[in-house]
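Annotated sample (chain length 121).
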Amino acid sequence: MLSIFGQKLWSSALRPPSIAMKPEQLYQDLKDLAEKLDLTVSEQSFRSSGIPVKSGFCIIKGKMHCIIDKNISLHKKTQVLAEVLFDLPHESLYVVPAVRDTIKKYGKPKGDAGKNNLLDS
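Output written by the structure step:
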């Protein structure tokens, strides 16, 4: 970071930190990105299922889905969706910096780095 006359300036090699975004807007932007990637996001109540169920990615009849327990916190919903989006090919799409940072923060590489494991399974 460069500083001139007390003003902080960013070099072209550095980008400024992402601007804070309201949690509701961040979650909505993640859902919008999912839609662009043909990932259906749905919130379901898991309480009455009778069996232990966990939010996450699945493929139903050849279509990608992210099913999220609607009873968990907004923070946890955001985390679950970001983890799923991490493994989907979104590099060619414009993603708001705060959304991109969230995906990187919660993304967990599975297997080989850079390999798209959700679609290769």
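Annotation: The first strand starts at residue 2 and ends at 4.
Annotation: The radius of gyration is 17 Å.
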